[in-house]
Amino acid sequence: MFVGRKYELEQLNKLYTRDGFQLVILYGRRKVGKTSLIKEFVKDKDTLYYAMDESNEASAMDNFNKLICNFFNINEESSPIISWEDCLKTIADNCGNKRIVVVLEELSYIGQNNALFLSQLKKAIEFYFKATQIFLIISGSANGFMEKTFLNPKSSLYGLQTAQFKIEPFSFFECSHFFPYLSIEEKIIYYSTLGGIPQYVMQFDYSRDYETNVMEFILNKSSYLFNEPENYLKAQVEDINFANKILSLLSKGDYNLERFHNKNISTGEDLILMIKKLKKLNIISRRRSVGMSIVRPWSFYRLEDNFFRFWYRFVYKNRGLIDMNMIDYLFQNKIKRDLNSHIGYVFEEISTEYLKKLNSEYKLPFVFESIGSWVGYNPVLQKPSQLDIVATSYDSVLVGECKWSQSLTTIDVLENLVLKAETLKYKNKYYCLFSKCGYDKKVLEYVKNKNNFYLFTLKDIDI
């Protein structure tokens, strides 16, 4: 089942209708859905599709040539190959004026540390392909390689592309299409557990309950997801133990360098290099506080991948219980106990995403230009504090609090939000709450005659 990627498909099809040669660069982390997107795009088009792998270069070149000969119905013996350039020139020589799609998937397998291949690719594009109707798609999972090779002004291949797409994990609303018949609460729970990587989302059986899915498809040692985060990182970082330590801390909350230091993690070059690597992999991000405030706010690091956050919080440190076949105990006494706390972080992201949607539809009192959160020392409260959501324009701000709990949100939450927001310097201030279970009477009474307060529930988000 193909889900989402509406924007990318629309843009690809629009490019396809253009006259002349087109080069599209498509990149993103492993299992994010690049192959599914390409296959959906080419399903009704003449396509020469070559998925590169880790085989040796001579074997890969031979396989590519066989594919080309079969596609154009050429006798292999009459098409001797010496180089990648020969293969690419054969494509150009035989396509005529016909529009064909040529896909080179996972180019990084051949292109990394192979300057000769890249120079031959450049020559083929400039001297053979540009006079044709070829629609060339080059994809890769090694984000650093793809960006350095095609999007860096210092690269010889820079500027040859017609368009480039960085394929991101699905948002909550995109992911919801995988399980449309579930309740909004269930959708949030599943998204908080698996995140937006399609390969992860498709592991669960949504006709079964959440507990069964977690025990069968995450805590089961033979399951694909059981050790997926560590397996993924082992191929990407040299010191997996150091990466595990950092991600284990981030699984329970945001960190700045000072907090890492307080947890006995050296804040020297090793930490900086590992953080840079994890950022490049889109596993973590550095976030800067949004909004003009009385004091300078803090920046912080956040674990962005929901499944990695779930795994490092509930699986990584409890593998001893799993080894003793105590997965029922693990679920009941650790996962179930702390799940709401885990979901709370994701609920903030979903609420932010919902506000972006309202903003794009002009359904808010002003159009905000940036949105995020605010963390820092609050001089009004005389202690560190956090605003879950801060959305700003030149003279207006919308601040929000998100509550994922089993009880009604009370008036003290709203009053505390107003108090915390005093540190922000804006002419117009608006306030919003997002609550899983709704609001008590005092909250409803407080906002009754005020036009700068907004209350949202799960029903609002269920779109």
Question: Keywords, please?
Answer:
alpha/beta, globular, 12 strands, 21 helices, Arc Repressor Mutant, subunit A, 463 residues, 5-stranded parallel sheet
Write up what this structure looks like:
The chain has three domains: 6-166, P-loop containing nucleotide triphosphate hydrolases (Rossmann fold, 3-Layer(aba) Sandwich); 172-338, Arc Repressor Mutant, subunit A (Orthogonal Bundle); 348-461, Trna Endonuclease, Chain: A, domain 1, CATH 3.40.1350.10. Helix content is 45%, strand content 16%. It is built from 21 helices and twelve strands. It has a five-stranded parallel beta sheet with strand order 2-3-4-1-5, sandwiched between helices. It has a five-stranded mixed beta sheet with strand order 8-9-10-11-12, sandwiched between helices. It is globular, with a radius of gyration of 25 Å. The mean pLDDT is 92.
| Parts with pLDDT < 50 across at least 5 consecutive residues | none
Class from helix and strand fractions: alpha/beta
Quaternary state reads single chain
How far apart are the first and last residues' alpha carbons, in Å? 21 Å
CATH topology of the largest domain: Arc Repressor Mutant, subunit A
What top-tier CATH class of the largest domain fits best? Mainly Alpha
Main sheet specs: 5 strands, parallel
The domain tally reads 3
Instruction: Please give the CATH architecture of the largest domain.
Output: Orthogonal Bundle
Number of discrete helical segments: 21
Let me know the average pLDDT.
92
The outline comes out as globular
Strand content: 15-25%
Share of helix, binned:
40-55%
**Strand order in space, largest sheet:** 2-3-4-1-5
Task: Tell me the Rg in angstroms.
Answer: 25 Å
Number of E-state strands: 12
